[in-house]
Amino acid sequence: MNKDAYKQFNNAVVGGIGMFVTLRLRGCPAEQNVNAMIDLWLAILEPLREWDNEDIANLQRAFIAVAREVEEWPTPKAVINKLEPKVKVSRRNLPPPPQTKEQRQEIDNIIQDIFNTLNINKEEKR
After folding, report:
1. Residue 32 sits in which domain range?
2. Are 75 and 111 contained in the same domain?
3. Does the pTM of the predicted model rise above 0.90?
4. Same domain, 60 and 114
5. Cβ partners under 8 Å of residue 38, min gap 6
6. d(Cα 17, Cα 90) in Å, to the nearest integer?
């Protein structure tokens, strides 16, 4: 992860933990332990993703979703469970788009032209 991405990731985690502290949830760490808590969360969350801009926005949404639901200090797992899966779609995995009647007819015409050029009857080859 590059320096800027890490800074954004760090800010997202600090902001999320800060939100939990501000909510004064039961089980909130003592003020002198908050930095250690942040370091722990960073160490747990960092290896999960590349943490690009999309991932960081997703992380911020996950912290907010957890904050809406909890009454006690959450574990990192609560935030991890709220992360939206990162789906990478490769064009190779997509089915070809459906062809229109016009496209199919054009392909049939091209094939027939090839058969005519080669002096082959299309019906003989089927």
Report:
1. 3-82
2. no
3. no
4. no
5. 13, 14, 17
6. 35
